[in-house]
Amino acid sequence: MLVEDLDGGAASEIEIHNRLPFTDSIRANANQRACLSAIISDVDFQSLFAHQAWADASLLSAVHAHPPSIEDEWLQKTLLHIVGVQRYFMSLFLERPFDREKEAEPPASFADLVQRFQGTHAEELAFVGGISSADLERRFELPFLKTGFTVADGLTQIVMHSQNHRGQCLRYLRKHGAETPTLDYILWAKDRPGPAWPVI
User: Domain ranges in the chain?
Assistant: First the structure.
């Protein structure tokens, strides 16, 4: 609105004077956006998603090593939610249909769930591996919020959302007697291991 108002026809000297603070605000906002774009372009999404793949694989391995957890309804629902959200955002980035009902169907087996995670992470890693600064600033619509976001926003949401639910799963596993891994980013960054998916 401020830009439209400033561009909206002739104004008296008094009006121009009164609008100067708004002009400064617009310039400041433009500078902030430029700085934010520079910061976003420096975010290492490849590392964040490589860590995410490793962390998800480690979580699934912990579940697999504790047989009662494989059939646990809450845990399976949460794991499906983690990978489902990742897949949903990828469908938005790649502008392809997303079948909510099909995606919400529980996998036929734990092995199928692991394969869904593997395929999703392979696609995510390929996507962030070929992304440019311009791609990161491209906007997409998030229908349920009725607004648009940048791809960088969406990628950040994937990582933070998954991290949040992994923490819930780890706490749940420990509560039910399972051995759980430590999945901190800084520990992964020491040697940057690849994902070790459970062998089923």
Answer: 2-39, 44-191
Model confidence pLDDT, tens digit, residues 99-142: 999 999 999 999 999 999 999 999 999 999 999 999 999 999 99
DSSP lists the bridge partners of residue 5 as none
What is the secondary structure of 131-196 as a DSSP string? --HHHHH-EEEEGGGTEEEEHHHHHHHHHHHHHHHHHHHHHHHHHTT-------HHHHHHH-PPP-
Q: How many CA atoms lie within 13 A of 94 on its CB side?
A: 16
Please give the CATH architecture assigned to the domain spanning 44-191: Up-down Bundle (1.20)
Chain centre to alpha carbon of residue 139: 15
Question: What is the value of pTM for the model shown?
Answer: 0.80
pLDDT digits (tens, 9 = 90+) for 185-199: 999 999 999 999 999
